[in-house]
Amino acid sequence: MEVEKKKVSAGCPVEAALNVIGGKWKGIALYHLLVDGTLRFNELKRRVGNVTQRMLTKQLRELEEDGIINRHVYAEVPPKVEYSLTEKGETLRPILIGLREWGMANAFPEFLEKNSTASNDK
Amino acid sequence: MEVEKKKVSAGCPVEAALNVIGGKWKGIALYHLLVDGTLRFNELKRRVGNVTQRMLTKQLRELEEDGIINRHVYAEVPPKVEYSLTEKGETLRPILIGLREWGMANAFPEFLEKNSTASNDK
DNA sequence: CCGTATCCCTGGAGATACTG
DNA sequence: CAGTATCTCCAGGGATACGG
């Protein structure tokens, strides 16, 4: 299958950066990778939580495209694929930490009020 | 009209933070507000660039909902509405600066390669 | 000037089943 | 185990026109 390049035009650097880490599951995935270092697909999937294989795969592929993560495939059976941050991905660490800090300090309490009933169960 | 609360379930703080600033036009809008301080609607619209009134309005309303920006309406004719960051919004400054720095250093060159022909014209 | 109302349409995203 | 392949659904987002 052909790998289509995403043609997202970013008008400014902030937008460009958000295009890289702003995907629906990219934030959490990246965060777990920067905490745990290296993770197999299913380990990552388990940590991210409520995500389908298809979605997680897509997001990881995009991150790989952008040079943020490494995808190491072992020629074994059963298959084994490990994901880890690249050097470029490591440069995101302060930003991701910053986002996490801010989220804990500001967004989380507020969002908990809004979702009185619904947890993120499915 | 009733203002619907967004019921986005964030599983972690990083996600929660991205839910706040990850909207399509929020990054640029916030960045211009933190640079210019206070802007009228059309000034902001002009700076953001290729955005419709409807979209910009929606994004600004969400930011207002989240307590990130202030919306000051002057009871004049012709109407005049000014937007500015709240105290809470100011706490995003280091993150936005970080995103901008990272975008300039990493994402922008790469994205320019991908769009060899297409600029962000319409 | 600063929005809202309406219409429409693309693609993001989930469920499910299948394969190397 | 780690993915693709299909199908489907609906919300995000754009164009346009109208209103206070």
TrEMBL record, chains A, B:
Q: Where is the HTH hxlR-type domain?
A: 12-111
Biological process terms from the Gene Ontology for this record are:
regulation of DNA-templated transcription
What is this protein's record name? Transcriptional regulator
Q: Which SUPFAM superfamilies match?
A: Winged helix' DNA-binding domain
Record has Ribosomal protein as a keyword: no
Q: CDD domains, per this entry? A: HTH_ARSR
Among the GO molecular function terms of this UniProt record, one is: DNA binding
Q: Which UniProt keywords apply?
A: DNA-binding, Transcription, Transcription regulation
